[in-house]
């Protein structure tokens, strides 16, 4: 995507932004802009500081969400594993799954496959329509699906409630898996999972 602030990068920028991001007396809008600049300039030097803020229960939730997105944008390749706890819900309250969405977009496919991510793909709150996690399930993850992921997603379809229903947040990923499964029928593992999935979802799936 377009990085509006990317041209602002200079050698002292990490130190310059850090005091705005972590300063206790800095107003929220200024903090958010500093985080946006850090994201656009890919300032990986700030990753550890920003992750500390995501984990802190002393930081307001809206700011933790902003920090989570920045951390996912700037994470060094050598530290991707540090985002696994964020994707798996270990960094505190995440009612709208914003932490999870940010982590998934950083981890998949650079560090995780869809198969790795599958156990953590839980249903969003029914009260939440749209949002970053919904978008991740609808668009980002289906685009990352490969044939090797199909058995894992077919197994998850049987766990997700009405995954093939037109209103399900899992439908795009489920449809993509079913399509790849049909193309991969000679594969015994895929075929076995497809049969189990068809039998368990016969009420909602019509090939």
Please describe what this structure looks like:
The chain is mainly α and 207 residues long. It has eleven helices and no strands. The chain is elongated. It has helices at 13-22, 28-40, 47-55, 61-74, 84-87, 98-107, 114-117, 131-144, 150-157, 171-183, 188-200. It starts with 12 loop residues before the first helix and ends in a 7-residue tail after the last helix.
Computed structural class: mainly alpha
Mean pLDDT over the residues: 90
Strand fraction equals: under 5%
Q: What can be said about the biggest beta sheet? A: none
Number of strands: 0
The helix tally amounts to: 11
Distance between the termini: 36 Å
Helix content: 40-55%
Secondary-structure element sequence? HHHHHHHHHHH
Shape: elongated
Cα Rg: 19 Å
The poorly predicted ranges are none
Q: What's a quick, concise take on this entry?
A:
The chain has 207 residues and is mainly α. The chain has eleven helices and no strands.
């Amino acid at each position: 995507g377009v990085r509006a602030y990317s041209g602002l990068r200079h050698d002292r920028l990490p130190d310059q932004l850090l005091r705005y991001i972590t300063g206790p007396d800095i107003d929220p809008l200024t903090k958010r802009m500093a985080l946006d600049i850090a994201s656009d300039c890919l300032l990986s030097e700030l990753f550890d500081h920003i992750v500390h803020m995501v984990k802190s229960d002393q930081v307001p939730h809206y700011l933790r969400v902003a920090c989570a997105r920045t951390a996912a944008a700037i994470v060094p390749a050598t530290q991707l594993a540090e985002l696994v706890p964020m994707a798996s819900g270990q960094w505190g309250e995440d009612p709208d799954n914003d932490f999870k969405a940010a982590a998934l977009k950083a981890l998949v496919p650079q560090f995780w496959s869809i198969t790795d991510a599958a156990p953590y793909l839980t249903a969003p709150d029914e009260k939440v329509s749209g949002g970053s996690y919904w978008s991740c399930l609808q668009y980002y993850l289906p685009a990352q699906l490969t044939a090797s992921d199909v058995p894992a997603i077919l197994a998850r379809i049987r766990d997700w409630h009405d995954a093939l229903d037109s209103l399900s947040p899992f439908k795009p990923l489920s449809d993509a898996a079913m399509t790849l499964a049909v193309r991969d029928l000679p594969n015994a593992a895929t075929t076995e999972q497809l049969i189990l999935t068809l039998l368990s979802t016969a009420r909602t799936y019509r090939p």
